[in-house]
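Subject: for your reference before the review

Hello V.,

The reviewers asked for a structural picture of the protein, and I figured it would be easier to keep everything in one thread rather than splitting it across files. Below is the amino acid sequence we used in the manuscript, unchanged from the supplementary table.
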Amino acid sequence: MSHQASPPTPQAALARLGPVRQLGYVVEDLNAAVAAWQHQLGIGPWTILSGITLQCAFEGQASQPRIDIALAYRGEMQIELIQQHNDAPSPYLQHREHRQFGLHHTAFLSSDIDADVAALQAAGLTLACDIRMPMSGRYVYFRSPVAGEHSYIEVLEATAMMRQMFASGMARAQDWQGPAEPLHLSLAWPLKLAMGVERLLRRQSTSHGPKQSIG
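And here is what came back from the structure prediction:
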C-alpha cells in the first residue's frame, strides 16, 4: 500500500533556504533613516538607489510601486531601508498608510527560486507579492505564518549580479571608517538599474581587496 508524502511544514520549507541574509525596513524618510543607522547604530557605508519602479503583482493585481532604497551590511547581513513614493498597491504601501514603520521583512537568498517558491506555497505560506524584473531577477514576498504579525518573508533570486552585490557590499563594510556621505545612484528599471549596479560593483572592486564569498 502506497502512502503519499506529507506536505512540508513552513519550518522545513524555510530551512532549505539557509540563513536570513537581509533585514528590510519601511521608513518614513530615507535620508533621515540612513543618518540614524550611521550615527546611532554604527552601520555603514550606505548606497542609496532612487527612482526604482517595480514590476510586480501584489495580491494578484499588477502594480508599479515607485521606491527608493538604501543598502548597507553588517557581517553577511544586508540591511535594506525602503521608502515608497507613489500610491501603487504593494507590501510597502500598507505599512506606510498604517504608519507601521520599522521591520518589514526577513529575506533569504535562493539559487532555485521557482522551486523554493513552490515549496513555500506547498507548505501553506501565502504568496503576497511577486516581483519580476528584467535583467535583475525575481523577488517574492510571503505573508508571515505567525498570527498577528504584519511582516513578510522574502525570497531573493541569487543571480550572479545579486551575489556580486552582496560580496562587494560586505567588503566595503569591513573597510568602513565611520559616518560618511552615502553613495547615490539615480536609476530607472530595468536597463538603467542593471547598468548602474554593474558600475557600482566595478567601482567597489577596484577600491577594495578580494571579494568575500557568500556561498
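For the response letter, the relevant points are probably these. The radius of gyration is 18 Å. The longest strand covers residues 66-74.

Happy to draft the paragraph if you're swamped.

O.
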